[in-house]
Amino acid sequence: KTLAIVGCPFSGGQAKLGVDRGPIHLVQAGLPEQLSELGWKVLFDGHHQFEEIDAASDPPIGKLKNPRLVSRVCEAIAKVVGEHAKKGQLPLTLGGDHSLAMGTISGTFEQYPDACVVWVDAHGDINTAETTDSGNIHGMPVSFLLGLGSKIPEFSWVKPLLKPERLVYIGLRDVDAGEKKILKENGIRAFSMHEVDKYGIGRVVEMALDHVNPKRDRPIHLSFDVDALDPSVAPSTGTPVRGGLTFREGHYICEAIYETGCLVALDIMEVNPSLADEAEVKQTVAVGCSLARSALGETLLGSPFAQTRAS
Ligand SMILES: N/C(=N\O)NCCC[NH3+]
Ligand SMILES: [Mn+2]
Ligand SMILES: [Mn+2]
Ligand SMILES: [Mn+2]
Q1: What ipTM was assigned to the predicted interfaces of this complex?
Q2: Quick count: other Cβ atoms within 10 Å of Cβ 304?
Q3: From ligand 4's centre to the CA of 22, what distance in Å?
Q4: Contact 293, 35 (CB under 8 A)
Q5: pTM, rounded to two decimals
Q6: Cβ(159)–Cβ(103) under 8 Å?
Q7: Under 8 Å CB-to-CB from 308, ≥6 apart: which residues?
Q8: Binding pocket residue ranges, ligand 1, CB within 6 Å
Q9: 284: how many CB neighbours lie within 10 A of its CB?
């Protein structure tokens, strides 16, 4: 049961400063120690340093901003995550913005081609080069993973290994018109906050897993954007959207996924320690840590450390 913590101090997928310091704050809050307390053999893989590319050498491609930087960083992360997965370790990637999931999920699929993805987020992150308004690539990783939209040579390393039926969303409430069209056209299952209200988080997680993992025998990659949580719960994040998951709903998702024993990779993304006052930053970092603990075996009544697939 080795857990490989991959620090990814990266902010190139969006415009707000500070999200690259998410990893250091999560680590300094004691996350590695907290996880070894749970029984994990923790391998801290360090905070990966990414070589800058000066703006002049990385002009936008169409609307896409910092395209070469984002592509190169994600390709590097795909290798790192893939290598840890190959060794039977469970990669925990600490972001950094959500564009990184293009890398982490590519890495997971190298090792687990039959994996499914649970994407917890206020946003769909599924814009293509054609539909994106902002050109911020953290709003696009899912489209690359599905192989949607026009092919961009700089991103040719991304293989379309994710199939629509292996992807499910929980927490959506800020989806662009173009993304809504993409979700519909591709028949992608999404449990928005409307469904969470209607069915309750317990049923939503059950239905989500029934959709992508009916026999609970497929590896699960959980990609958790902390802005899925209500801003009152995780205030220090780049794109807060009101009406989000409660503290418990967010943790329930993680606990329930851990209980499947299928978790093989986890991303905790978009913690930006520079967007709120000290108390709110502390709160957001603490939530990132507790979500990770819940997804990795911490339970409220303390049950013995169950085996996960990546043992
Ligand atoms: N946090 C974000 N994605 O998860 N922002 C980008 C999406 C805005 N439409
Ligand atoms: Mn996201
Ligand atoms: Mn988001
Ligand atoms: Mn700081």
Answers
A1: 0.91
A2: 7
A3: 8
A4: yes
A5: 0.97
A6: no
A7: 1, 90, 258, 261, 262, 263, 264, 297
A8: 98, 121, 123, 125, 136, 138-139, 176, 225, 227, 238-239, 270
A9: 28
